[in-house]
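Field reference: sequence -> structure
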Amino acid sequence: MESVNEEAAARFERLATTPLHPAGAARTGSAGWSAIRDIFSHREMLGLLVRRDLKARYKDSALGFFWSLIRPLIQLGVYFVVMGQFLRAAESIPDFAVYVFAGLSAIGLFTEIVVGGTGSVLTNGGLVKKVYLPREVFPLSSVGSALFNFGIQVIVLLMATLLVLKPPLHWQFVYAVPALLVLVVYGTALALLFSAVNVYLRDTQYLVEVVTMLLFWASPIVYSWAMVKSLIESPVLLEVYTNSPLTLAVLGFQRAFWVAGEGIDWPARLWLRLAIALVVGLVLLVLCHRVFARLQGNFAQEL
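Structure field:
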């Protein structure tokens, strides 16, 4: 009996002198860089989450990933007929179908990142409560699945440009790069912010859906920026509208893919505007991640 007590006492003594280690990856130094290292160390899990989201979305569906094309194509058909033909928008915008689809692809990527990311933590509540993962992987998985669907839409958009015999073989095609970066950076920042807030305030996801719908009509997708310029008399209001990151990204995609718009009036120094928007977006991304990091500590309790 005494030997058992001595062995237990020795075990407790060893436990008392053993240093404690955090269950998850320690985030030392800069919070941003440590978060990036933590996410990179779980990159395989991030990839699994992206594939799971894509498979779950079209599970038991006969058409599978073709559904990612059907919705934007139906939207294109509706806007082409209603706005282009009935309301005569196509008369002032040549190759109206390509113009609209370029804008739909841009706004669709942003909407899918933000809306999908907002509900990502809530949807993965079981994993949050049971398994250690950097919580950022959940909204980032929405970014990955949105980019996959976006890639399919871009292929269709390129095919549409070939059908009208106007492929984007011009130097303005490079506008697609900063425009895409602006969409991803701002979408990721808002996805991080809203996914954390949505854990505490469940109405956030519905509010986000309404706001993204309003942002669609506030962007030059079914109408041209030149039309807005002719209607807004105040130079200040025009600059506010033009320098919206979403407006700039949509204009960037239109300049990249819409060859028929080379003679149309565009905002001056679009390259510089996109670069400034990207820098501001990176700052916003850091701030939104800081808010996410502050709020993530109580995710398990709230879920």
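Note: Residues 20-29 have pLDDT under 50 and may be disordered.
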